[in-house]
Amino acid sequence: MNRLIYFAVPGRAEACRIALSLSGMNWEDVEVNGEQYNQMKNRGELPWGFLPILVTDKGTIAESSAILRYAGKMAGFVPEDSYEAAKVDEFIDGMGPIARAMDTTFGIVDVDERIRLRKKLFEPNGEATKALNLYEKKIGESKTGWAAGTRDMSIADLKLFTELFAFFSGNYDGIEKSMIMPYPNLLKYHDKVSNDKRIKAHYSKIGPDDLRWTFLPLAFSNDSG
Predict the structure, then answer these.
(1) With 0-12 CB in 10 A as exposed, 13-18 as middle and 19+ as buried, what is 92?
(2) Which residue among 75, 97, 122 closes a domain?
């Protein structure tokens, strides 16, 4: 039995959850809180000091992208063609800036200051805006509509779809749904991925009040509220 251990939010484990669910492997989604995380860290159970981790019969795999590549291969989301696989890795590795920009706000206790800094990220010259403009350009250039230009959905799509659109779920104070609306290519991409039969089936039991509402079809349509 494989055990994916992370917090009770989509975050950096959500793409791995999808891949594991579609891989056919036996696995358990283990959710922990901050206290449990610190206990694991103090006991030396986290190879690099962070979550998520995937505990397998052979040992523990750490780092979300490594877990995603492992589970994604089992689920058929890693291209067999070596060039396509490299382009998928390129896209995944290139996604770092927006997550790093958000990371700078997580430790800020003052709510008003945290909101101010997060909104600043989405100003015209903000780091989040730069990242969104880059994603908008990349998706617009894709001949297939998939993130890395692959013939079918890949782990790059699982990562982009879950990590990008989760920002606008309301889980991060200061970040609003309206911030993604000026990006037509990304909205079209959301429509493509959320309506894919595999993704749609995975989230079939998720309702609009769930934290994962941003992964549902029509989540960012003009009439979705």
Answers:
(1) buried
(2) 75
140 three-state secondary structure: helix
Token couple for 104? 């700078």
ω into residue 52 within 30 of 0, thus cis? yes
Report which secondary-structure segment, H or E, holds 49. Answer: none
Give the global pTM: 0.95
Neighbours of 34 (CB within 10 A): 8
Write the CATH number for 68: 3.40.30.10
> Does the structure show a pLDDT above 70 at 223?
no
Write down the H helix ranges in 122-183: 127-141, 155-166
How distant, in Å, are the alpha carbons of 22, 109, 143, 152, 199 from that of 203? Answer: 12, 33, 27, 19, 6
Q: Within its chain, how far is the Cα of 34 from the centroid?
A: 20
50 φ/ψ angles, rounded to the nearest 5 degrees: -135, 165
In this prediction, residues 168-172 reach a mean pLDDT of: 93
